[in-house]
Specification:
The chain has 216 residues and is mainly α. Helices cover 58% and strands 3% of the residues. The protein has seven helices and two strands, in the order H-H-H-H-H-H-H-E-E. It has a two-stranded antiparallel sheet with strand order 1-2. Helix 2 runs parallel beside helix 5. The longest helix has 29 residues, at 2-30. 5% of the residues are buried.
Amino acid sequence: MMEGSDQEDNSSIESTAAKVKRAIQYWLDKSTIHIFPRWILFTILLALFFLRIYLIQGYFIVAYGLGIFLLNNFIAFLSPLEDPNDVGGQRDDGLSLPSTAKEGKEYRPFARRLPEFKFWLACSRGVITSIVMTFFSVFDVPVFWPILLMYFGVLFFMTMKRQIAHMYKHKYVPISFGKHKYKDAGRETGEYGGGMAGSIAGVPQYGAGGAVNRRR
């Protein structure tokens, strides 16, 4: 009897966990197209984390670790999927950087090492994990925070300098603006704009006695 009840409890826990995972994955899939709301949510979470750090005046080592984690993800977000320095890693899937003038004239979106959605998801998980860590005193390691801040500033400057030099060397910009979109694309304008209504407006209407009545 005890073994049967234990198995039922385990199966119910597993089914509940599976339902929770499916629900989370469902909402994550739904949020894929909502870029700005997702990043607004991330900004709010980050502000809450720093507000808690400021109020309790502790867990500076957690904040430093979060900064390093976000910086690494940001560099992966700016980096191309295929490193141009890797001579032997030639690909034929159209995702590499253009190497000839003909390829450079063709529009190809920038393929990132870390896509935007995965970048947001990793950063959000990192911030949530850091907020949870601030509720456990074991992570409150005493440290002189100005040194950590200065070291992070130097690390950020050197890392971004190297990344910008890499972008300048291989002549790529990690932003895909997409193809040109015209202002009146798909919109009917002119004499026959709006379908039949526009054509009827310009056709003379004949009344009694042959008088011409034009519709305005």
